[in-house]
Every structure is written in structure tokens, then in C-alpha cells.
Predict the structure of 3-ketoacyl-ACP reductase.
Amino acid sequence: MTAQVAIITGASRGIGAVIAKQLAADGYAVAINYASSATEASKLVVELRQAGHQAIAIQGDVAKSADIKRLFDKTEAQLGKVDVLINNAGILKALPLAQHSDELYNQNFDIHTRGTFNALREAATRLNDGGRIVNFSSSTVGLNFPGYAVYIASKAAVESLTQVFAKEMRGRGITVNAVAPGPVATELFLHGKSEEQIQGMAKMPPLERLGQPEDIARVVSFLVSPAGGWVNGQILRANGGLV
Ligand code: NAP
């Protein structure tokens, strides 16, 4: 039997890389998208192939619709038609709203909102019926942290795209959900923070620790599995009870 096929955007590092490992272990052939971390993406492909899984790496900036089209083209040519799309690619550069440059504003909305939009639009005609889509928001949408206005706004838009697109997939058997992690120990969260700030945020949820990429990958694994098939159009906050 040929394996089902999953595309994971931003899977060279961080949460996306662990999702790729989890979905490969779940039996999917995985397409690992990245923007610039070619070395990390190829290392992950080698690791997964050595473990007996099907994996390919595909460069592409999610903010560019032509790159997303190419991501689907290459995945279809090398692995087959796509069953699962994980829109995970993201950045975090927290700054008070007043200090945002036009460029940083655009970057947030281009990667998170436009990137998710580009991939959803492509998936609308190219995902197999019965497929699964998981977008990435953030628990900061519920926290309204000062310094995160533009990041939060670009992720809030992803939540809206998720809820409407789930309805637009009526009749196709495709579920569309979003995961909204709290702080997860990856470069995106840790970069530029003092040990004190990190420990302070780690203590905030009642479970009193930072999330690990594996915590999030297991949630994604559930949502794309038959066990998660009745969850649709939802935003699942995975954050140890933070908000
Ligand atoms: P990360 O460790 O910084 O990894 C980000 C990944 O996204 C990298 O693989 C990067 O690839 C890729 N990427 C960035 N811009 C891209 C673009 N334009 N096109 C394609 N890929 C791109 O971040 P992470 O912590 O794993 O975050 C993953 C997702 O979870 C993001 O959407 C983030 O907003 C969300 N999230 C994270 C946290 C957290 O605390 N970590 C909390 C809430 C939500 P390159 O290296 O090749 O650029």
C-alpha cells in the first residue's frame, strides 16, 4: 500500500521538524518545506530515510504563491497526491506596535496570514477528499501580551481563515483546524530572552513548564488521525493551561 502524503511547512527546525518525525512515524510520506535552512532540512530527510521512512525536502517561501504551487507540484511528483497539510511556518519578532517598521508588519502578515492563505487556496483543489489541514496560531491570541500586537493580529487572522475554510470544505470530508501553542522551547521562543524571562513564562501555566515540540506534534498527530476526525473548524490551544 502506498503511504498517505503530508506536507509540513517550516519543518527544517523547531516544532515543524518534530511534526515531520511524528507523522513519518505515524506512516506518512513527508514533504519537509523550509525557507533557508537547507542543511537542517537535508539532515532531517537523511535521518528519516535511514529509519525507513519516505521523506523529501522542498525549499519555498510560504509567502510566495508560486513557491507554494511548486511545493505541491514537487510533492505530487515525488510522493503522490497530498492528504495532510500542516501550515506551521512562522516567525516571532516581538516589539511594541509603535516600534514596528512597515517591513516587520509585512513580514508577519506575509508569512503567517498570506502563507496560510496561499497554502489553503492551493489545498482547496489539490488535497485528497478526506484530507486533514492543521494551521498554526498561538495562545498569545488569548493573552494579548503587550509587545505582540502585530504577531497576534497575524495569527488571529489565521484562526479566522481556519474557521471559514472548514465550512468551505463542506462535502469533501476534509477537516480544517488550528493548533495554538503556548510557549514552546524552540529558537523562535528562546531567542533574545533572558533566563529569568524564560523561567517566568515557564511557570505561568498550572503545569509549570515550557511546552516541548513533542507536546505539539502529538496534538497534530491526533488531529490528522482517524481518532481526531470529528474535530473540525476548531482552534485547539495546547499550552499546559496557560489561557
Ligand atoms: P522555529 O523554531 O523558529 O522554526 C520556524 C520554521 O519556520 C523554520 O523551519 C523556518 O525555516 C520556517 N520558516 C520561517 N519563515 C518561513 C517562510 N517564509 N517559508 C517557509 N518556512 C519558513 O519556530 P517554531 O517555534 O517551531 O514555530 C512553529 C510555529 O509555531 C510558528 O507558526 C509559530 O508562530 C508557532 N508558535 C510557536 C510558539 C513557540 O513558543 N515556539 C508558540 C506559539 C506558536 P527556515 O529556517 O528555513 O527559515
Remarks:
- The first strand starts at residue 5 and ends at 8.
- The chain has one domain: 5-238.
